[in-house]
Design goal:
By secondary structure, the chain is an alpha/beta fold. Helix content is about 35%, strand content about 30%. A hairpin with a 2-residue loop joins β12 and β13. α2 packs across α3 (about 70-80).
């Protein structure tokens, strides 16, 4: 089983090697918890040799919120000793403007992936456009149906091409929970999202630039926490 290193030792340990290829990993959390940083870091580490925690493949990045930063990839590539220009060239980037466009991009991704060795597909964020395109309660069932179709396609791509699929997701206040509970938020997308993702990771803020990752749901990993930090060159080890 090939896994992709996250760039942080403790986080890799928690994930028993890193982000799994051939399945969907969902990362959710509030703003600035490191979701996009993780996406950027993996776009570089997936290109590294298997012996260094990579998969010797290229990456596809579907960006729905305009969070992609090429200069970030350059810094991460330098940190891992890769040629920054080459590392950037190995990341196919597309900006999705609405949920329909996001669905279309998956077809294009499948075409690209069949021509070359890809190791990672990032959707940052999987749910944002579905939320804005289907606003009202009356449209919820339709939104969930289309989101379900999108996630099924993703599962197919993960299995067919053996890529690690990393999707990010936001959280919303969970009115059903006790509001004084230590974290009364839940990931968007309900059961549809829960069933599509093999591994679900929750990120939250720690001290300073430190962040905490919790295994929220996984068929193999124990429910545990690990600390990591957000650095200028991607995800790195937590600081004391």
């Amino acid at each position: 089983m090939v896994t992709l290193t996250t760039g942080a030792v403790e986080l890799d340990k928690l994930l028993e090697g890193g982000i799994e290829t051939g399945s969907i990993t969902e990362v959710f959390g509030e703003f600035r918890t490191g979701k996009t940083q993780l996406c950027h870091t993996l776009c570089v580490t997936c290109q590294m040799p298997v012996s260094s925690g990579g998969a010797e493949g290229k990456a596809i990045y579907i960006d729905t919120e305009g969070t992609f930063r090429p200069e970030k990839l350059t810094a991460i590539a330098e940190r891992f000793g890769l040629d920054p220009a080459l590392a950037l060239e190995n990341v196919a980037y597309a900006r999705a403007h609405n949920s329909e466009h996001q669905m279309e991009l998956l077809k294009m991704a499948a075409a690209i992936m069949s021509t070359d060795r890809y190791a990672l597909m990032v959707i940052d964020s999987a749910t944002a456009l579905f939320r804005t395109d289907y606003m009202g309660r009356g449209e919820l069932s339709e939104r969930q149906m289309i989101l379900g179709q999108f996630l099924r396609q993703l599962t197919r791509l993960a299995e067919e091409f053996g890529v690690a699929v990393l999707v990010t997701n936001q959280v919303v206040a969970n009115p059903g929970e006790m509001s004084f509970a230590k974290d009364a938020s839940k990931p968007i997308g309900g059961n549809i999202m829960a069933h599509a993702s093999t591994t679900r990771l929750r990120l939250r803020k720690g001290r300073g630039e430190n962040r905490i990752c919790t295994v929220f749901d996984s068929p193999t990993l124990p429910e545990a926490d690990a600390q990591f930090a957000l650095g200028s060159a991607g995800i790195c080890d937590a600081t004391e």
